[in-house]
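Quick board copy: two proteins, each given as sequence then tokens.
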Amino acid sequence: MDKKTKTNKKATWAGIIAGSIASVVSYYGVQQLFFKTDVETVLKKAATELNKQLPMNVDEYSRLDSASAEGENCFNYFYTLVDLEKSEVNLDTVNKYIRTGIIENVKNSTELREFRKNKITMNYNYFDKNGVFVTQIAVTPELYSE
């Protein structure tokens, strides 16, 4: 793999990070600030509202297809890597750069304050262009509270 391809793949993952976090955060934050209701209801409503806008291309390499809530402490994002097959994804690179970047963003993002406050686990699920599961990056309260 040449240097340009590696750089493009890193840029792809950076776009995935930005898009995944920005997608539902503002809606969830507004709900928490203005409507005092149980967290599970807010998460489900956030997923429903986000899903009305999906699928959405995050960048030229990835698409956010759907979101879902599980109970009162888990929010799931489902992405497709539109031009990649599972065999083309280097999981060591994902864990070294992408996972670390997502965790740092969750720790430091003011937009994710309500997620942290309510100890929400965010699962980023990635599928290849053929619908084959590639990986999940789970960001748990233990990871962003360190």
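And the next:
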Amino acid sequence: MNSILPHLEQNIQEIYRKALDADAHLAQLKQQGMAKFTAIFDQNSLFKCTDRTFMPYVAELTQDIADFRDKADQAQLNIILKKMELLYQLLGTMKNITQSN
């Protein structure tokens, strides 16, 4: 399981950079009176946090990876990968929206 850690860390770095861009765009939308949602992901998602920006979700995923580093568990890895997938999907959608405007 330790061989996957570098890949997880590389992915979280990429997600972090994309989340910074997405949060900046969300801040602009909020200033324009748009983006009136209450959370990025709904309460039924795998994420424990609820926030209107991406960075708290990235922080939660980063902590999940740190916890995984201490005790490698297949179930925990599956959750990490699913959370990454959710973030990548939504960040990709955000990027497509910002590029089309």
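Board note added afterward: Residues 5-31 form the longest helix (27 residues).
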